[in-house]
Amino acid sequence: MFNPLCLATLPVLLCQATYLDPSLLQQKPLMHGLPSDTLSDVTVLPLTLNKHLHYTFSSPTNNPTPLSRLQNSAAVHATHHEHSRISIAIPLDAAHTGTISFSSPTSSAVQDTTATHMTWIPQNPWDVDMHDIPLLDAGVRKGGMVSMSVETAVLDFSTAFITLPAGLWDVVVLATQPVLKPSWGQERGQEVMSVECEARRRFPDLVLVMEDESEIVVGPKQYVLQRGDECVLLVKKAEEGDEERVGLGWAIARGREVVFDWGEGRIGLGAFEG
């Protein structure tokens, strides 16, 4: 559980930057460096961010389709891109367009490459959604780490935001000093907090410790989104009664490849590149 004594030592804990798990730095994006004959039937679509902080892509009818639909097996089938693997790339620069790649790798070379270059998280075969990431702990780290036990993380690309239990949210607020930003085009009920863009280099990492004790690290380049000279904090406090899990919006995918492998029933997370 969260240790309140850690708040008193926060200035010391936040004095030195901590970077990615070195083992993750060796990972590479899924499709980079592969020969052209190792992939078949690859469809690449642009991924566009709207003013409400939602990513969409074009459907066969040319209507914007929410990114989150790719997490549901029935919705994926309805896109008419009937491929077993979906790769999502969201850039750090919000002015740039992201991409979605629908593919059906057929060679053993691709299978070997993805096994090496991705962290794979098996999913419940009876669940129609790709969203479950089992965890042991979640924490905020800058030199030292303030952490607490959590049951799971839920991947939810219908939102940009990472939601944290109250104790960890308080630490993030202390470290980032956010203020409400009404000028952003948020939807009703969606509060958007801004932070100083120049202060990002001093912000801590968010650390998710998985059941095998490997880490998913989300840095300030990912959870702070800049548009022009304004920066929004893509982190929120969890709703009351939802304190035992972490919500992971598409902020976790910024600068990191995410793969929904429907053929194997697993989620793949690449290394952060930024």
UniProtKB/TrEMBL annotation:
The keyword Hydrolase does not apply. The keyword Acyltransferase does not apply. InterPro entries: PEPTIDASE_A1, Peptidase_aspartic_dom_sf. Residues 1-17 form the signal peptide. SUPFAM superfamilies: Acid proteases. It comes from the Eukaryota. Keywords: Signal. Residues 1-270 form the Peptidase A1 domain. This is Peptidase A1 domain-containing protein. The lineage of its organism: Eukaryota, Fungi, Dikarya, Ascomycota, Pezizomycotina.
